[in-house]
């Protein structure tokens, strides 16, 4: 009789004492989720400098051509033989045509550069705000909303600052317009390399409980007593939080081809706009 009572007693104790992981109830965002976004922000921060350099290079080319044309004209003036004129006149005309073409398109290129910078900076602003808020929502290395852990417990790995270049350091400072030579990395012929999440801010994208209510969509979360009415989006639409903790909110910004996943997602329209603009200043483009 005593033997038969042991099993139900153990079951009751296990149910009440051994608690499951509570990623839905205050987990911190895992490294695998935020890292690609942090890296993208670093790339976007280099866009203004790259655009400024392209404009400067274009102006420099015009000035060089003007100097060459003046030298050619001077040579023609000092060497007025028919042979010299026959050989050099087509060259000076070609230089003049190139100067005219570059100069006539300069204002158009300036407008294009402004559009590239404003579009990418608008997106980076959304990303920066997300990281600023999420990282500031921190109490100790056990309590907060961003963790460098890759799964399970975030104990000792909840952070208020990201410092590892390999994982990505969010670029949250104001844009610098000084000319830059930094390579625009993480951009493929289809989209942003690696910028994809299958989880979003759902159970599988969060650590065990780190007492973060910023990402809680259920009751006792951001709306206190009731669940949120619809999916809450962060970082310009890349991250989503459903009112059901286990529901994933996937996003794929790796494919902005006409029928690609990113192009079909209305939540990623800011990312598509930024991608479309940034590709106009990549090496090999006709900027």
TrEMBL record:
Keywords carried by this UniProt record: Cell membrane, Glycoprotein, GPI-anchor, Lipoprotein, Membrane, Signal
Membrane-protein topology: Lipid-anchor; GPI-anchor
Superkingdom per UniProt: Eukaryota
Subcellular location: Cell membrane
Every Trypanosome variant surface glycoprotein A-type N-terminal domain range: 15-255
Keyword Lipoprotein: yes
InterPro entries: Trypano_VSG_A_N_dom
Chief subcellular location: membrane
GO CC list: plasma membrane; side of membrane
BP-aspect Gene Ontology terms: symbiont-mediated evasion of host immune response
Signal peptide (UniProt feature, chain positions): 1-23
Protein name: Trypanosome variant surface glycoprotein (A-type), putative
């Amino acid at each position: 009789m005593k033997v038969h009572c042991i099993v139900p007693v153990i079951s009751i104790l296990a149910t009440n004492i051994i608690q499951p992981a509570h990623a839905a109830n205050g987990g911190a965002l895992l490294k695998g989720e935020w890292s690609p976004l942090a890296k993208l922000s670093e790339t976007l921060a280099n866009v203004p400098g790259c655009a400024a350099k392209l404009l400067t290079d274009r102006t420099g080319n015009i000035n060089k051509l003007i100097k060459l044309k003046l030298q050619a004209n001077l040579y023609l003036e000092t060497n007025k033989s028919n042979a010299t004129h026959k050989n050099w006149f087509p060259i000076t005309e070609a230089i003049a045509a190139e100067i005219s073409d570059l100069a006539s398109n300069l204002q158009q290129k300036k407008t294009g550069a402004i559009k590239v910078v404003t579009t990418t900076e608008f997106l980076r602003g959304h990303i920066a705000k997300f990281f600023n808020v999420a990282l500031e929502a921190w109490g100790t290395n056990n309590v907060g909303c961003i963790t460098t852990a890759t799964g399970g417990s975030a104990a000792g790995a909840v952070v208020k600052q990201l410092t590892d270049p390999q994982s990505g350091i969010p670029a949250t400072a104001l844009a610098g317009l000084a000319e830059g030579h930094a390579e625009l990395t993480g951009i493929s012929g289809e989209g942003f390399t690696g910028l994809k999440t299958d989880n979003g801010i759902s159970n599988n994208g969060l650590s065990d409980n780190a007492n973060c209510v910023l990402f809680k969509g259920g009751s006792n979360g951001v709306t206190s007593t009731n669940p949120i009415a619809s999916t809450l989006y962060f970082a310009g639409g890349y991250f989503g939080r459903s009112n059901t903790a286990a529901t994933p909110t996937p996003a794929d910004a790796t494919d902005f081809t006409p029928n690609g996943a990113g192009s079909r997602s209305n939540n990623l329209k800011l990312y598509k706009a930024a991608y479309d603009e940034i590709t106009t200043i990549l090496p090999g483009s006709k900027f």
